[in-house]
Design goal:
By secondary structure, the chain is mostly helical. The protein has a domain of about 80 residues: Helix Hairpins (Orthogonal Bundle). It is built from four helices and no strands. Helix 1 packs antiparallel against helix 2. The longest helix has about 35 residues. Bound molecules: zinc ion. The site of zinc ion has 8 residues, from helix 4.
């Protein structure tokens, strides 16, 4: 993979990382503010459900952030774009869709990990 291409993936990854940290800040702020002594049971249940949803979102996001940071590190080490399991190059179509992936499609299907 040439330098220009690597730079482009780097931009994609950085943009995604930015997007994630913005989403996370927005997602958590209202949940924290919503917990209070007022409101009936239905409201409290809704707040509870919402909070759980957001926490789930947060956990998914932090896994994704980690994966993106790892991908950026691989760009720096010049190992980006190679499958970590079989060492074959990952297809461009796959890198376009999920630039933070560590595995090619075949290995990914065997592993069955959500990210
Ligand atoms: Zn592979």
């Amino acid at each position: 993979m040439d330098v220009r291409e690597l730079q482009r993936y780097k931009q994609l990854l950085l943009a995604k990382l930015d997007e994630l940290s913005a989403t996370r800040a927005e997602a958590l702020a209202p949940v924290m503010g919503a917990r209070g002594p007022r409101g009936d049971l239905i409201d409290q249940a809704a707040v509870q459900t919402e909070a759980e949803l957001q926490i789930h979102l947060y956990q998914t996001d932090s896994r994704l952030s980690r994966a993106i940071e790892d991908a950026l590190a691989r760009i720096n080490r010049a190992t980006f774009g190679a499958c970590e399991a079989c060492k074959q190059p990952i297809s461009k179509a796959r890198l376009e869709a999920v630039p933070w992936t560590r595995l090619c499609r075949e290995c990914k299907e065997q592993e069955q990990n959500p990210i």
